């Protein structure tokens, strides 16, 4: 990492300057498998007594595509993004509450959300800050709440990919962050579905909030 570049500010600046093209390029992406993974876990948690509506925080909501779909399905969706242009787009497109916060300056209510949808977003958090960020997300979930994440997979390498900063987590590496943060793994899978592993660049995983986080080691 170049000492002259701030990972979060640099990544947000890139999205800010490419907001419209990003919206056009990603609006039709099919993430129904990921949404189903979160909602299935929420339904299982609720049991026969409840099928929602659930309150869901879309972390890194971008222009608001998934906020619209969660709302269409009858849930209460709240967005969060660090890019001002995305926040404006998401509010206008979805009519949802959208928080303008970057991942290193979260200010979330305690125990508000049933689920968190972190689709292609948390990999932007530098590894040194990830335990704190996960702790804040953990605190914002209701007891037994569900966290879904999807990240580009790799060998736990970290750094710049062009103008964006990221961490390419392996499954084992991702577990080393989530488990000490107070989550238990419910399932994981690789995307796109149905392809050989070498053609599946995305690692998706579903986690449930347990008791208070505990330090590793």
From TrEMBL:
CDD domains (UniProt xref): AdoMet_MTases
InterPro entries: Methyltransf_25 (IPR041698), SAM-dependent_MTases_sf (IPR029063)
PANTHER family in the cross-refs: TRANS-ACONITATE 2-METHYLTRANSFERASE, TRANS-ACONITATE 2-METHYLTRANSFERASE-RELATED
Keyword Signal part of the UniProt annotation: no
One GO MF term: methyltransferase activity
One Pfam match: Methyltransf_25
Protein's recorded name: Class I SAM-dependent methyltransferase
Keywords, sorted A to Z: Methyltransferase, Transferase
Occurrences of domain Methyltransferase (ranges): 56-145
Lineage: Bacteria, Pseudomonadati, Pseudomonadota, Betaproteobacteria, Burkholderiales
UniProt-listed Enzyme Commission number(s): 2.1.-.-
GO biological process: methylation
SUPFAM superfamilies linked: S-adenosyl-L-methionine-dependent methyltransferases (SSF53335)
Keyword Lipid biosynthesis recorded: no
């Amino acid at each position: 990492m170049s000492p002259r570049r701030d990972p979060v500010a640099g990544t947000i600046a890139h999205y800010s300057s490419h907001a419209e093209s990003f919206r056009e390029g990603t609006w039709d992406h099919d993430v129904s498998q990921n949404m189903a993974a979160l909602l299935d876990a929420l339904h299982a948690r609720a049991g026969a007594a409840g099928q929602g509506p659930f309150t869901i925080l879309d972390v890194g909501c971008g222009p608001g595509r998934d906020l619209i779909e969660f709302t269409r399905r009858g849930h209460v969706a709240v967005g969060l993004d660090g890019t001002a242009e995305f926040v404006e787009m998401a509010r206008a497109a979805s009519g949802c509450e959208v928080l303008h916060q970057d991942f290193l300056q979260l200010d979330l209510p305690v125990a508000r959300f049933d689920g968190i949808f972190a689709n292609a977003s948390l990999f932007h958090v530098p590894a040194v800050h990830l335990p704190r960020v996960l702790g804040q997300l953990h605190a914002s979930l209701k007891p037994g709440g569900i966290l879904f994440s999807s990240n580009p997979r790799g060998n736990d390498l970290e750094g710049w990919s062009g103008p964006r900063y990221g961490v390419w987590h392996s499954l084992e590496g991702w577990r080393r962050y989530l488990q000490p943060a107070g989550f238990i793994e419910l399932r994981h899978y690789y995307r796109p579905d149905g392809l050989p592993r070498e053609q599946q660049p995305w690692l998706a995983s579903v986690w449930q909030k347990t008791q208070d986080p505990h330090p590793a080691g």
